[in-house]
Specification:
single chain; 757 residues; Enzyme I, Chain A, domain 2; TIM Barrel; 22 strands; 16% strand
Length: 757
């Protein structure tokens, strides 16, 4: 079908090569291009729109009325053509009129055409025009046809640039930028505040030549670039400052795997075979991957696309000889880095003494660069789509990672307010730091245990920095999420041992792998099928028990890593006591296997369960005699109690943690554990908020595992709290709840001078 619907890309490029080499006017060349494309794609219409004085002007067409050329003009965002240019995206429609942005222009005579496909003509990351085809019959264009259009658009970008037809506004890149202050809102990735000077990480390589003169020469250039790129990645993975064990190593190994991917290099070679230069072939394959990835609703695959995008940039820089990035060119002493996205290796190239913050046009909480930035202590905000339009190099930028906002070219008033907040934050951090070695004891003498949640080997360093009592939750799944393949037992063992060593005798609770749901592993067969309700599906312990080989490997790795030490193991998402029994049996099976071979074992193994599924509360009398500790995961428990997806923004503020339903439920669990003599704690986000933590202490909780940043504020709250008064208050308020429990608790805390932040 593809062969029947489209001529080979090589044939199209041959025709375009002749057009580019001809000594005719730019208008004549564009007229020939639309004829070549229409004939090759058996399409009744082919049109080229160019951005001129801020409007998309019909510059050449075959199939539409010739009288509309230079007459039909569309604003940015107007109609299908304007939408393509505004969003820099492909549109492929079987019925053009069904699209909400469709705008009919009678002078073109296009009313007889139904199908429509259009691609942006891109120059320096901006759409400077649109290439579109139309057909009378309603049908969607196939992938090969869309890829052919994108290839033609690349060639057109070169043609119109050489002909001086790039719109002066797009060429300047600054005319549409507000010279005044800009406030940019994004997604909070890594918290923190920074003031600095905007520096572009790296402009996209400008591809000057798209059609190859000598295919073998282009192939040789790509082979040479691949060799050099792989050498760079090998050097980077061995010299990374995070050491040889832990998640950062896994991130870089995954990145390295893509650098050696033969499928990627093969596709680039196929594009060269079709007549593209090395640079154009790399860019074409990148565009193809991005378009296909955009159709897949899988956040993990999206992060893999970021790595491939990073590697494509690196390969383009090498093959074009444009090797410099801001990391190599030198940074000002207070750099705020602006980038579409970054790979983890690229971020590691920067001098962390000078890099103060990062603003990404893309990025996500699980992106590899976010993980590395968090370990580096660099604040990051992502999803700032218009960052490159709003920020010029050299601009002053105030980055507030706590609020996920950036102020560009700030006014004196904004700068004064930011500096005041920064100073206040530094003062608060200094006050909290002073509590590092002070135990969290209430005003009436009760010791509260405050531990930290962790997922990275380097997180263990926070124990000393904030004065925590240990790691109450170590999320082992992160190593699985960033790895391209199932992590080997030896790799897991190295990680767990390094965490125990960094904890230096303080307790560490390892939660067994919790994947599935919103944490997909593409290499684990069965997860890729998708579920209507993934949070309620095949995940966590349910998955681990079904895939007992995975559970056995992790169990042995934990037992070997804790040889001679205490080992605390916790199983996630237990719904019924038999699941705990089966999980413990698998660990004990590995313990017996090691003992039979004379291997050194942990001095003690303590077993715990996560209280996340409400059903478990009805069988605590059966479970509690079997376990050493219980940990309440308030994040999942809350969404299950309220039947409310915590990721749904429409429900994010609808249900309050400080509701009678939750607090009464938790109090029932605490009382059952107290009667059974089983230690119980909270390891969810709720425990890291001062007002919520105060309420939890009031209902009887004495153990918390929270983010390292929350330890200082929680300690300050505990030391200012009279536990007896809080307990009496909670009993009274849960007996007859006020209309607004949160407001009532806040009022009491203010009256009692409880430190809340």
């Amino acid at each position: 079908m593809a062969d029947a619907s489209i001529a080979s890309a090589r044939e199209i490029l041959t025709g375009l090569h002749e057009v580019m080499a001809s000594r005719t006017s730019a208008q004549a060349k564009l007229n020939k291009v639309v004829n070549i494309v229409a004939e090759a794609m058996h399409s009744e219409v082919c049109s080229i729109y160019l951005l001129r004085d801020g409007l998309l002007e019909l510059y050449a067409t075959v199939g539409l009325n010739q009288s509309a050329v230079h007459v039909t003009k569309l604003a940015h965002g107007e109609g299908l053509v304007g939408t393509i240019a505004k969003n820099v995206e492909v549109l492929n429609l079987a019925e053009a009129a069904s699209h909400p942005e469709f705008a009919y222009r009678p002078e073109t005579g296009e009313e007889t055409f139904h199908s429509f496909a259009g691609v942006p003509i891109i120059r320096q990351e901006r759409a400077v025009g649109v290439l579109a085809v139309q057909h009378a019959d309603p049908r969607a264009y196939d992938d090969l046809e869309i890829e052919a259009l994108q290839t033609v658009a690349m060639v057109l970008s070169e043609l119109i640039a050489n002909a001086g037809l790039i719109d002066r506004r797009a060429k300047a890149g600054e005319a549409d930028r507000d010279a005044g202050m800009a406030r940019l809102k994004g997604l909070k990735l890594v918290v923190g505040m920074a003031r600095g000077t905007a520096v572009y990480h790296q402009p996209r390589i400008l591809i000057e030549h798209t059609v190859a003169e000598d295919i073998e020469a282009e192939r040789h250039r790509v082979y040479s670039a691949f060799r050099k790129m792989r050498e760079q990645i090998d050097t980077m993975t061995t010299q990374a400052e995070f050491g040889t064990a832990g998640e950062h190593h896994e991130v870089l190994e995954t990145y390295k795997m893509f650098a050696y991917d033969e499928g990627w290099s093969r596709r680039i070679n196929e594009s060269i075979d079709q007549g593209l230069t090395a640079e154009a072939a790399i860019e074409r394959v990148r565009q193809r991957m991005k378009r296909r990835m955009a159709e897949i609703d899988d956040p993990l695959l999206a992060e893999r696309m970021h790595d491939l995008d990073d590697l494509s940039n690196r390969l383009l820089r090498i093959v074009s000889g444009q090797l410099g990035t801001a990391a190599q060119a030198g940074l000002p002493p207070d750099a705020i880095l602006i980038a579409r996205n970054l790979g983890p290796a690229e971020l590691l190239e920067y001098d962390r003494r000078k890099l103060k913050g990062v603003i990404l046009q893309e990025g996500s909480l699980t992106a590899h660069v976010t993980i590395v930035a968090r370990a580096m202590g660099v604040p990051v905000i992502g999803r700032v789509a218009d960052a490159r339009q709003a920020i010029s190099e050299g601009d002053t930028v105030l980055l507030d990672g706590d609020e996920a906002v950036a102020f560009v070219r700030p006014t004196p008033a904004i700068e004064e307010a930011f500096n005041a907040k920064l100073a206040a934050g530094q003062k608060r951090r200094a006050a909290f730091a002073a509590l590092r070695d002070v135990p969290p004891i209430t005003a009436d003498g009760t010791r509260i245990t405050v531990m930290v949640n962790a997922g990275l080997r380097d997180d263990a360093a926070a124990l000393t920095a904030v004065g925590a009592d240990g790691i109450g939750l170590f999320r082992t799944e992160f190593q699985f999420l960033v790895s391209a393949t199932l992590p080997r037992r030896e790799s897991q063992q190295r990680l767990y041992r390094s965490v125990l060593e960094a904890a230096d005798g303080k307790p560490v609770v390892f939660r067994t792998v919790d994947v599935g749901g919103d944490k997909q592993l593409p290499y684990l067969h069965g997860l890729e099928e998708g579920e209507e309700n993934p949070a309620l599906g095949w995940r966590a312990l349910r998955l681990a028990l079904d895939r007992s080989t995975l559970m056995r490997a992790q169990s042995r790795a934990l037992l070997e890593a804790a040889a001679g030490r205490e080992l605390r193991v916790m199983f996630p998402m237990i719904s019924e006591p038999w699941e705990f029994d089966e999980a413990k049996r698998l660990v004990e099976e590995q313990r017996a296997w090691l003992a039979a071979r004379g291997k050194k074992l942990p001095s003690t193994v303590l077993y715990g369960a996560m209280m996340e599924v409400p059903a478990l509360a009805e069988t605590l009398d059966i479970l509690l005699p079997k376990i050493d500790f219980l940990s309440i995961g308030t994040n999942d428990l809350t969404q299950f109690l309220f039947a409310a997806d915590r990721a749904n923004p429409k429900l994010a503020e609808r249900y309050d943690w400080l509701s009678p339903a939750i607090l009464r439920f938790l109090r029932r669990i605490v009382r059952a554990c107290d009667e059974a003599g089983v230690a119980v704690g909270v390891c969810g986000e709720m425990g890291g908020r001062t007002l919520e933590c105060m309420a939890l202490i009031g209902i009887g909780l004495r153990r918390f595992s929270i983010t390292p940043a929350a330890v200082g504020p929680i300690k300050a709250m505990i030391r200012s709290l009279n536990l007896g008064g809080a307990a009496e208050l909670m009993d009274r308020m849960l007996e007859r709840p006020p209309d607004n429990l949160r407001a009532a608790l806040s009022e009491w805390a203010a009256e009692q001078n409880v430190s809340l932040s």
